[in-house]
Design goal:
It is a single chain. This protein has 234 residues and is an alpha/beta fold. 36% of the residues lie in helices and 26% in strands. β4, α3 and β5 form a beta-alpha-beta unit.
Length: 234
């Protein structure tokens, strides 16, 4: 298939390599300020920047080009984008993380939170570690994990950045260390023991592969989907 890469940074370049290895053609490679003709593409993959993502996504909807987005920081406009997608009969997948392993980890996190909700002696905390070029904190993946816990665990209603524990709030510690693609650890601690689950990315290829697989899956479909649909989990 013919792919538009909207955003051509480190992730875009990794996606390009994997897509070509899987037999696809890259027909658009755009940095955020460039103009482009999206109609050349069968599907678009957006890993741009927050102030470009909404325009990129809506532009795809208006031209009936399915779009996959992994850009974080633009979600104030998410509901508006969904409304436009439905109006234009577009196709869309947004994920804070496209890694196949992370999406399995999301489901594991939800299941564990549901079980731990019955055990009041355990308190939850989270740590995420990323490379020093990552400016946002906590990561979009950490926020998704926290939201999963809040949905399934009756004792938590919010999250906050920092390691101080407060009532009904999940503390998230964010660290930035050179050359770390992404590590997320969730701890349930009591005075007798600690239960931990961890996902450690070894490189960017897992994120990129997931995005390409999502693009392959969405081709020919209409609607708003998630990686749970792509992987048929949950």
């Amino acid at each position: 298939m013919k792919i538009a890469l909207l955003g051509y940074g480190k992730m875009g370049k990794t996606i390009e390599k994997i897509a070509i290895d899987r037999g696809h053609e890259i027909v658009i490679k755009t940095s955020d300020e460039d103009g482009y003709d999206i109609t050349k593409a069968d599907v678009a993959i957006d890993f741009s920047v927050p102030n470009a993502a909404f325009f990129n996504i809506v532009n795809c909807f208006k031209h009936q080009v399915p779009v996959i987005s992994g850009t974080t920081g633009w979600l104030d406009n998410y509901n508006k984008a969904i409304a436009i997608c439905e109006e234009e009969k577009g196709a869309f997948i947004y994920a804070s993380n496209f890694s196949l392993g992370v999406n399995i980890f999301f489901e594991l996190n939800n299941y564990l939170a549901k079980m731990m909700g019955q055990l009041k002696q355990y308190e939850v905390s989270m740590e995420e570690i990323h490379h020093t070029q990552k400016l946002d904190a906590p990561s979009g993946t950490a926020i998704s994990l926290a939201e999963g816990i809040i949905k399934e665990h009756p004792e938590y209603t919010n999250w906050k950045l920092g390691n101080e524990e407060t009532n009904k709030t999940i503390p998230i510690t964010a660290k930035r260390i050179e050359n770390v693609p992404g590590t997320h650890r969730i701890d349930y601690g009591s005075h007798t023991d600690t239960i931990s689950i961890t996902h450690t990315a070894h490189n960017r290829e897992g994120f990129a592969l997931g995005a390409v697989i999502a693009a392959e899956w969405i081709l020919g479909k209409t609607g708003v989907f998630s990686m749970k649909d792509v992987l048929n989990i949950g």
